[in-house]
TrEMBL record:
Cited InterPro entries: Carotenoid_Oase
Annotated keywords: Dioxygenase, Iron, Metal-binding, Oxidoreductase
A GO biological process held by the record: carotene catabolic process
Binding site for Fe cation: H307, H356, H421, H599
Name of the protein in question: Probable carotenoid cleavage dioxygenase 4, chloroplastic
Length: 615
């Protein structure tokens, strides 16, 4: 056994054989010496040796192979030149050695998936995750749609875009729902007619993997599946960086799969693991990716939240990012001119919390230091660094939105409050009271492992600014609710109505309307309207579009995508937001299935026209 390895790798070290012969011998060795396992595919995402002795042999073989691979990389990295491009840094003329290294890396990746991974949990098993309407679809160019019910209101002239994960390749190993490449599903409406298209956000990750023909970028959710497999993947990614296969420091690793935002007059697709990607809607109803954007920052800036808050009055945007090292949280603003302002580091955060969203009022920003934490030491245990901390007491931190540092920031304990999405926040009593409406994950330890079992409650909290304490907190409904939205005109201001999706194992089967003015300790449920989708239909997050002109806060329409799992037909639904039954005003049959996704945005035709003028 050892002689066989020594023979091959002596050839490599002395360079008496070309690199291609080395690869041939390694493949031959793998075929004749290593235990055989079925190929990895979507139906059997990992092959695990059932015999412990066979598993030990496989790990030993991989270790020896890996030692030689590292020697090869260290000698090759100095000789391989690669160019870093800020937009889509894909080399069109790869050298033969780079191609051979890419093939070698892919073989090692296959080995990890087939031999080293632990049995896949449901949350990272592609066969389970990409089931039903979570299965990916291909891109679709602008295609005419048929209005099959009612008529489209004139205030909907514009585009509705919804973002979501859609892997361009079937995963060969562990895969989490949050790992998928961002795909935008957009319906463009003009004078009662509609066209629909689906396009990937052409991120750096998407372009590199598209060029190589397979997925390999690391994921905080799924790359860590057992100690041996985790260490192997980390080493392999280091090797890819050293040889120039990808450069995450310069170009990021994000998927831009979470949301869409209109920031300082430009459209962006966002994901919290990277910077936003600017996108453009073309005149014929298509989507084009412009590129990764740092808002002309003068400071190092690699990522930001996927839930920035845009002030409809001032035009400025408030955002944040969290870190693995101090400061664990950084708050910042983006001016209406599109330029990022100075960072405000938050050193009073004592560890890294997975902060997905935050709340903003006229004068304050409010952060939740919750129990979902990121602990790199978990990697040494072969687990994802994200974990639930049952001992930690969640806190809310309040800071002046124009603060230059954190000296005036204060924190209050809010036991059991783990905010996922902020619906709205505002000030009362001449700024002496802060009101926050947000979803609270009540079964946090299950949410990443079993998303279908997640429980979320909409809650309303009141905080005394003078006393710096929580003065009131209660749920708004007995239902499990999330993906709450309001009339966007009222962002950061006191509002009465909110709309949300009922979260069940079947996901969004019902949309409800809540009257926030009814909230009190004596009111168990503030739901004043609802619509249950047709049997077999599952809907996503709604978006509120105000009527033009609007007479009341709830004078407008809810728009969303709904998929019928029985007929396999997806629709664009328009509901009357004022109606207690959320009556359907219009329905559009879409030319193909729209997978389940995350957050969306409506952009009026007038805004689109302004965007075109700014280009």
């Amino acid at each position: 056994m050892r002689k066989h390895w020594k023979l091959i790798f002596t050839d490599r070290v002395t360079s008496s054989l070309p690199l291609c012969n080395l690869l041939i011998k390694m493949e031959a060795l793998s075929s004749s010496f290593l235990p055989r396992f079925p190929d990895c595919n979507v139906s059997s995402a990992v092959g695990i040796a059932k015999n412990p002795q066979t598993k030990i042999i496989a790990i030993y073989s991989f270790t020896k192979f890996y030692e030689s691979l590292m020697k090869l990389i260290s000698n090759s990295a100095e000789r391989i030149k690669f160019k870093t491009m800020h937009m889509h840094p894909i080399s069109k003329n790869k050298t033969e050695k780079q191609s051979l290294l890419a093939n070698m890396f892919r073989s090692v990746d296959d080995f990890i998936c087939n031999h080293l991974d632990l049995p896949l949990r449901p949350s990272i098993d592609p066969q389970h995750v990409l089931f039903g309407n979570f299965a990916p679809v291909d891109e679709l160019p602008p295609t005419p749609c048929e209005v099959v019910e009612g008529s489209l209101p004139s205030c909907l002239d514009g585009v509705y875009l919804r973002n979501g994960p859609n892997p361009q390749f079937i995963p060969r190993g562990p895969y989490h729902l949050f790992d998928g490449d961002g795909m935008l599903h957009m319906i463009k409406i003009s004078r009662g007619k509609a066209t629909f298209c689906s396009r990937y956000v052409k991120t750096y990750k998407y372009m590199v993997e598209c060029d190589l023909g397979h997925p390999f970028f690391p994921s905080i959710f799924s790359s860590f599946n057992g100690l041996v497999a985790s260490m192997a993947r980390m080493g392999l990614n280091v090797a890819r960086v050293l040889t120039g296969q990808f450069d995450p420091v310069i170009n990021g690793i994000g998927t831009a799969n979470t949301s869409v935002a209109l920031i300082s007059g430009k459209l962006y697709a966002l994901g919290e693991s990277d910077l936003p990607y600017e996108i453009k809607v073309t005149s014929n109803g298509d989507i084009r990716t412009i590129g990764r954007h740092d808002f002309d920052s003068s400071e190092p800036f690699m990522r930001m939240t996927a839930h920035p808050k845009v002030d409809p009055d001032t035009g400025e945007t408030l955002a944040f990012r969290f870190h693995l090292v101090p400061p664990f949280l950084t708050f910042f603003r983006i001016g209406s001119d599109g330029r990022k302002r100075a960072d405000v580091p938050i050193f009073s955060m004592k560890s890294t919390a997975m902060i997905h969203d935050f709340a903003v009022t006229k004068n304050y920003a409010i952060f939740n230091d919750g129990q979902m934490v990121i602990s790199p030491v978990e990697i040494l245990r072969g687990r994802s660094p994200m974990r639930f901390d049952p001992v930690k007491v969640p806190r809310l931190g309040v800071i002046d939105r124009y603060a230059k540092d954190e000296s005036g920031m204060w924190w209050i304990d809010v036991p059991g409050f783990n905010m996922l999405h902020a619906v709205n926040a505002w000030e009362e009593d001449d700024g002496e009271t802060l009101v926050v409406v947000a979803s609270n994950l009540s079964s946090l330890e299950l949410d990443l492992g079993r998303l279908d079992l997640a429980q979320s409650k909409l809650e309303k909290l009141k905080i005394s600014v003078k006393a710096k304490k929580l003065v009131m907190r209660h749920p708004l409904s007995i239902k499990s609710l999330d993906f709450g939205v309001i009339n966007p005109v009222y962002a950061g201001k006191k509002n009465r109505y909110a709309y949300a999706v009922v979260i069940t194992p079947r996901m969004g089967m019902e949309v409800v309307k809540l009257d926030l003015s009814l909230s009190s300790k004596d009111c168990e449920d503030c739901v004043v309207g609802s619509r249950m989708h047709e049997p077999g239909c599952i809907g996503g997050e709604p978006f509120f579009v105000p009527n033009d002109p609007a007479t009341d806060e709830d004078d407008g329409f809810l728009v969303t995508y709904v998929h019928d799992e029985m007929t396999q037909v997806s629709k664009f639904l328009v509901m009357d937001a004022k109606s207690p039954t959320l009556q359907i005003v219009a329905a559009v049959n879409l030319p193909r299935r729209v997978p389940a996704g995350f957050h969306g945005l409506f952009v009026s035709q007038s805004h689109l026209t302004k965007l075109c003028r700014n280009d």
